[in-house]
Amino acid sequence: MGTTHEQFNVGGMSCSFCAESIKKAYSRTDGVEDVDVSLAHEEVLVEYDDDLLSEVEVKDTLQDLGYTIRDPDKAKRYEQQQAELADGKRRLLIAGGASIVVAALMGWMFVVMGRFESASLAMDILNLGLALGTMFGPGRYIKQKTFQSLRRGIFNQHVLLEAGAFAGLVGGLLGLFVFPSFPTVHFFAVSVFITTYHILSEYTSLIVRTRASQAVQSLLDLQPDTARRVSDDGDVEEVPVDDLDVDDRVRVKPGENIPVDGEIIEGKSTVDESVATGEFIPEEKAEGDEVIGGSVNETGTLLIEVTATGEDAFLNQVAREIEEARAMKPGIIQLADRVLKYFVPGVLTIAALSFLFWVVAPLAWGAAPNVQRGAFAALAVLVLGYPCALGMATPLALIRGGGKAADRGILMRSGDAFQIFPDVDHIVLDKTGTITVGEPAISEVVAFGADEVDVLRTAASAEAFSEHPLADAILEFADEQDVEYADPNDFDSVTGKGVRATVASDDVLLGKPGWLSDEGIDLSKRADDIKRLQGRGLTVSGVVRGGDLIGLIGIGDEIKADAAETIRRMRDASITPVMITGDNERTANAVADEVGIDRVMADILPDEKREEIGRLQQADHRVAMVGDGINDAPALTQADIGIAIGAGTDIAIESADIVLMGDRLGGVMDAYEIGNESYRKTRQNLVTAFAFNGVGVAAATTGLVHPVFAMLAMVLSVSAVLANSFAGQLLSGDGVNTEFALDERTDGDVSDGRAAAD
């Protein structure tokens, strides 16, 4: 017994104020030691004393607040998200229908009867029914959230909504039974409209969040969750990976993911360990070598003895790193929520003071207390105090920016990405697969006593039977150059060093310079050329024919075509680019020099990447991290904004706030520019919304503001926000895209996206 961690995927969060409400609720619960809420990933991580709290009680707190706990199974979670979307749509249709009926009745009263006031008791009762039906039908869930918030002393947007909605209901009832001069119908109408606008704003946020989540899921390839366990008798059975124990033996065929951490006890192969190292050149593995779960077995069949399971396994260690990073990540409160923090208690206070003023102030000049005017003033303040446009301001900017980003192949997963990006002053980039393509390619062929075509032909013939990725690079380059080559007569691969082959009648060696020297080849005259190629960060292979070195082949990771331009755009925006990589310092500096990066962190392990991000944050920098591998995931989570390359790994994508479809690096600065523009729109929207509400609340304190003006203010403020969000886009002919157009991961290159969008 002691401290326990529980992580939940939560439905129903629509803004960072929801996240703050959850934090406050848990902070006031005995036994809870720490809580972390990730709005972007819709997750809540609770650390609690299981001597004082049970898991059920921890879950009950979330559910009492009106949020749902989704199933940990991804398929079921998707179904729950679909159900939430359907429920939100159903609520909006019902509330929207009621609003249309109320608006029609008011229009009939004004046009046909020529007045605002109710025509009959039947009209009053009908509007009362619509108000109660909307508030306690589709709006019932809001009341649950409001009650639980008030019970815990939390004042949020739900409290403000219900203050306005109940003010309308109370005002209508007072007009119906106490003060005949009260505009009964219009007070009831306000209750309907306020509730409908709130449901609309939450549904808008739900659409954005759910579609983003589903778009991410469509990028993810579920890792195999089974393994082939081999018994002592040699029998093979398919078992869940979770059922494996230390010392169990599993067989892994070529092309399959290695399911567990272990040691090879039979076979040899090349293994792609970029899952851990981030580097593209696979490691040669044989009996006695260790392998990492999640890496890819490329060429041979392996029999592996399990050495680590559960919390000790590499992928679980990464998962723990991600959880710790989320717990340490600086909290973000949306701009609207920072304003609401003071606006909610402010409106409630002004309403109370307005009532007291008209009850007490008349006594000063010898008049009787004006209870009716005080009640009207207080109710009008509460009605006008609910900023309908406020609920729309951020989601509308998010929809506009999200649609524009999707057109450029960028998936913005949360509003945080829009808000934080303008403050980012450092962008940290992984090297392999981010700045570079992440695949070996021929960078240079150097010939000695022969021409380059002859060197390439000899190398390709020697490697024709090899399955090593470097061999694939040589063969692919030969094909691109239309160089014809023949199969070797004899072929032998020397693990981790090179190959021997007989090409025509010549003995050929192709491999590392050190191995060639061990084989008696004199490389002294070519030492400068070897050093020059290595200085560029290239892997050097010597080509030896008939005992003579006839050439060198420099193989490297090709730099992306738009990398240098992207770095230039960062500098133009006063952002410092930083490269962080697990590769050696020589290779890292060579790549950095070519693209224009001055600050380089090389030989960095996965957990150290996160620590380096944390150090930058502790120095008061806002940091974005760009990466594509599992080894980048903790750093992506730790960063203020994590940006994943969509052609990367599942865990990296899940850990990010922004996903770039395909592998184009320029999307980073496209996202920055869109984020800047969207945040500017958000600020403009909020100023517009609060301008209407500020004037309205001030006017309402006089007790002379008719509820119809509250409704007019709602319509005008929402219309102004809509116009500001979309007018420029519509006039320019750009579509408002709320869908995220996804390409298949392998075909997801959207290199023309920026040009097309511009």
TrEMBL record:
The chain crosses the membrane at residues 92-113, 119-138, 159-179, 185-208, 342-368, 374-399, 686-705. One of its GO terms (biological process) is copper ion homeostasis. Residues 4-70 form the HMA domain. One of its GO terms (molecular function) is P-type divalent copper transporter activity. It is found in: Cell membrane. GO terms for cellular component: plasma membrane. Keywords: ATP-binding, Cell membrane, Membrane, Metal-binding, Nucleotide-binding, Translocase, Transmembrane, Transmembrane helix. PROSITE patterns: ATPASE_E1_E2 (PS00154), HMA_2 (PS50846). It comes from the Archaea. The keyword Membrane applies. It is a multi-pass membrane protein. NCBIfam families: ATPase-IB1_Cu, ATPase-IB_hvy, ATPase_P-type. Belongs to the cation transport ATPase (P-type) (TC 3.A.3) family. Type IB subfamily. This is Cation-translocating P-type ATPase.
